[in-house]
Amino acid sequence: MSTCKITVLKRMFNPDLSEAYRRPDIHQGPCPLFEEGQEFIVRHLGERPSDFCDWAWNDIHKVLMSLMTNGDFSPWMKDGNMMIACCTDGVKPVVFKLERIDELRHLPGRAGERAA
User: Fold this and answer.
1) Fewer beta carbons within 10 Å, N or C terminal of the chain?
2) Is residue 114 part of a domain?
3) How far apart are CA 61 and CA 67, in angstroms?
């Protein structure tokens, strides 16, 4: 099975939706769980990185499964070894780049750990 890297590309916030629908005591602003540029390495499909949001993991898991089992996204992407996906939080979505990587190109570490 292939190794994948998850990179946080963008954190967004929709203040109009937050104002209209969210409780005022709930966090306002972009997702506090990720930072742009943050990277995670995943070597085993069932091993979610320990500090990765459960909700976001559930949303991107199907794309990771495809990449890790040699799926090809070239009908939609310039590079068939990668895909852009996001969590489904409409108020504060996070956009991720998911890419299958050559095991020799990334830093050593354990499954599901944050990349250096």
Assistant:
1) C
2) no
3) 10
Quick one: tokens of 69?
A: 């089992």
- 11-23 pLDDT per residue, tens: 999 999 999 999 9
CA-CA distance, 12 to 114, in Å (whole number)? 22
Instruction: Encode pLDDT of 18-56 as tens digits.
Output: 999 999 999 999 999 999 999 999 998 888 998 999 999
CA distance 114 to 109: 9
Specify the 3-state DSSP secondary structure of 51.
coil
Does residue 43 lie in a domain region?
yes
3: left (phi over 0), alpha (psi -120 to 50) or beta: beta
Rounded to two decimals, what is the model's pTM? 0.85
